[in-house]
Write a structure and sequence with these properties.
It is a single chain. The chain is of the alpha+beta class. It has one domain (about 1-95): TT1725-like (Alpha-Beta Plaits, 2-Layer Sandwich), CATH 3.30.70. The protein has 2 helices and 4 strands, in the order E-H-E-E-H-E. A 4-stranded antiparallel sheet has the order 2-3-1-4, with helices on one face. Strand 2 and strand 3 form a beta hairpin.
């Protein structure tokens, strides 16, 4: 199992209160959740008017795919132009499954995370239409 985590530090220009900043942060987190199906939370800067640190997390079977989803999510936050991205960092970790070393699937067999934000099953399975 591959776990990816990203930390994104943003600066909300023109914010004059915590309420204004939190509105921008809430908008960014909801948009990223909806588009990329990631876990997103404000993890730092809660008591400042213009600075926030966002944490993003993704899980999958392929290291490059998890990295790609997080890279695109960080790029998307920049493209929103709701806040300036001051810095970002992405870490990818491989964790064992069932107490054993994780077996990575052969190309073509891996479940894929949605990268383009399009609706669909993130595990690549077709819905059962009975």
């Amino acid at each position: 199992m591959i776990v990816g985590a990203a930390v994104v530090e943003i600066h909300v220009h023109g914010s004059q209160s915590l309420k204004a900043k939190r509105g921008v942060v809430r908008s960014i987190t909801q948009r990223v959740r909806n588009r990329f199906n990631l876990a997103v939370s404000e993890v730092g800067g809660q008591d400042t008017w213009q600075r926030a640190v966002l944490g993003l997390a993704a899980v999958g079977f392929e290291r490059p795919r998890v990295r790609q989803v997080l890279d695109r999510a960080v790029d998307y936050i920049e493209e929103l132009h709701l806040a300036e991205v001051v810095g970002s960092d992405i870490e990818i970790v491989e964790l064992p499954v069932d107490g054993e070393a994780a077996e990575l699937p052969v190309d073509g067999e891996a479940a894929e995370l949605p990268v383009d934000g399009q609706p669909g099953d993130p595990y690549g399975e077709e819905p059962d239409h009975e």
